[in-house]
Amino acid sequence: MQREDSLLSTLAPLQNRAFRAIWAATQISSLGWLVQTTAISWLMATTSTSDLMVALVQASSTLPAFFLSILAGAIADSFSRRGVMLAGHCLIALASATLAISVALGFVSPWLILGLGFLAGCGFALNDPAWHASVGDILEKRDIPAAVTLMSVGYNTVRSIGPALGGLILAFLGPLAAFVLAAVSDLVPLTAVSRSKWHVRSSPLPRERISTAIQDGLRFTAISSEIRAAIVRGTLFGLASISILALLPLIVRDHLAGGPIAYGALLAAFGTGAFAAGLGSSYMRRTVSQDRLIALASVACALCCLALPLTSSLPVAALALAIGGAGWLITWTGIDVAIQLSSPRWVVGRTLSIYYALSYGGMAAGSWIWGSIAQNYSLTMAFEVAAAVLLLVAAAAFVLPIELWEEPEHEASEFVPPSLALDLKPRSGPIVVRAEYLIAEHDLETFLACMREQRRVRSRAGARNWTLQRNLLKPSLWTETYRTPTWMDYLRLNHRLTAADKEVGDRLAALHDGDGPPIPALSIERATGVVRARSQPITRISRP
User: Fold this and answer.
1) Residue 209, by phi and psi: left (phi above 0), alpha (psi -120 to 50) or beta?
2) Distance (Å, rounded) from C-alpha 347 to C-alpha 344?
């Protein structure tokens, strides 16, 4: 009964029409992409004698996410996420079509393969943050964990079919058929996204500049300890675990003496393990803490790395890859959901993009590292070092725990701007905010604890130079001060505060030992180093 309930809760997001259409279209596109990836990897392994070039096939498609994801996340939070998804899928379709045409004309080279893989990676870098951030717009918050699991399960279900299909197509029809199938499949998500619409809560404020949006996203991520821990763990896991996929063609070629069918079958085993883990993920989350589950997943991938170079048996290698696939899905799904639930809607695209940038950057670096070790030393040494790193990642759970599933609501609360005596422009500033509190001595420890939380809340929302001062002549008087660069930044800060954030202010107001709640005083700074007259040019005051 528990397993049936778990399955029903996992499938609940498919009741939403927009999510169901895009999710299904994504699986078709992923099938074509995996067929194409199988063909590219094998084509590179047969046309290039360099182990490093074979490993760089994975790097070429993941490196763009490292460079472009943060920008893409800011774009996804500032513009229509649906439009960003369409742009990303257009780039992917262009790369696949160009590759198919190049193969048809007989113009194929290792660098062309890497270049088109990089172009497709740019499309994924645009699409992924926007698609994952849109899940919270399309669905209720309670369905986000199930939706993320479905997205991972769907991809890994296709992973269990796509590589095997790719191997069969390579063996019987050749690489051109694989590339044509990929190019056609890329048109399906374009159609699904263009036809699907969903409600997105609009902001009453004008759009941020991209540079400011990136800065706000980086600051929010740096201050949020739960997001920071998840990103560090994900980056290290990506760096080590990518060795399984990056070096698998060499295992097939050198240790198993197999061909494209064997390669596709082993990738299918990896996807089958991930699929099985996805179906049982809800049950596992109820029996094992999420943090421990992610740590055990790293151990599973380490065992896979140790087993692959030590066996010449295809069934044993398939079993090892199934274990590695299960660890792969559990880790990425858990970290993705942790970041989704820890991020307010106004910044979720940026936090996810920073996570993708660093994790994909780790995978790109790992592809190069493990390929270099395999080429300069041995394939066995590369897998052994990767396994050691994965065990260290598992041990990192003791110092960087990931807290999942219990995050508070992040819906923004209502904010009514105060009436001002001055006519401020949106770019007027800097704005200084001061709030005074009268605190009794017996409430001091509670007040300081609340203020530590208040500092985190204000800083994550955009406050600068936050300070807390105690009056020397009247020690019971405390002053909270912070700044925003402009008046518009002050409005954005207050629109970003959630109901949970406002509760911190309510607790502070309850500690205030005065008549009524503390009322913030707003000021605008004015520099004295420049004097401007209406009819005169700027005159700078010289220093003595």
Assistant:
1) beta
2) 6
Domains along the chain?
A: 2-194+208-398 (1.20.1250.20), 431-531 (3.30.70.100)
Task: Assign 462 to helix, strand or coil.
Answer: coil
Q: What's the CA gap between 333 and 335, in Å, rounded?
A: 6
Q: What DSSP assignment string belongs to 71-134?
A: HHHHHHHHS-HHHHHHHHHHHHHHHHHHHHHHHHTT---HHHHHHHHHHHHHHHHHHHHHHHHH
| Separation between Cα atoms, residue 332 and residue 340, nearest integer Å | 12
- Tens digits of per-residue pLDDT, 363-377? 878 988 998 999 889
Please tell me the predicted confidence (pLDDT) of residue 482: 95
> What is the tens place of the pLDDT at every residue in 439-487?
999 999 999 999 999 998 898 888 999 999 999 999 999 999 999 999 9
Burial state string for 98-119 with b = 16 or more CB within 10 A and e = fewer than 16:
bbbebbeeeeeebeebbebbbb
- Token look-up 């660069």 returns 485
Nearest to 468 by CA among 487, 491, 444, 485: 444
Strand arrangement of the beta sheet that strand 464-470 belongs to: 464-470, 477-484, 431-438, 521-524
Supply the angle between the helices 379-395 and 225-246 in degrees, to the nearest 10. 160
Q: Taken in order 25, 27, 31, 33, is the CA torsion positive or negative? A: positive
Structure tokens at 265: 């079958």
The answer to whether 525 touches 432, Cβ cutoff 8 Å, is yes
- Phi/psi at 241 (5° precision): -75, -20
DSSP 277-290: HHHTHHHHHHHS-H
Higher pLDDT, 313 or 4: 313
Q: How many CB atoms lie within 10 A of CB 425?
A: 9
Q: Helix, strand, or coil here: 464? A: strand
Structure tokens at 70: 């943060």
3 state DSSP class of 473: coil
Instruction: Give the H or E element holding residue 448.
Output: helix 444-461
Q: What is the per-residue pLDDT across 10-53, written as a single tens digit (0 to 9) for each?
A: 677 888 888 889 999 988 988 888 888 778 877 777 766 676 77
Q: Mean pLDDT across the chain, nearest whole number?
A: 83
Higher-confidence residue: 72 or 474?
474
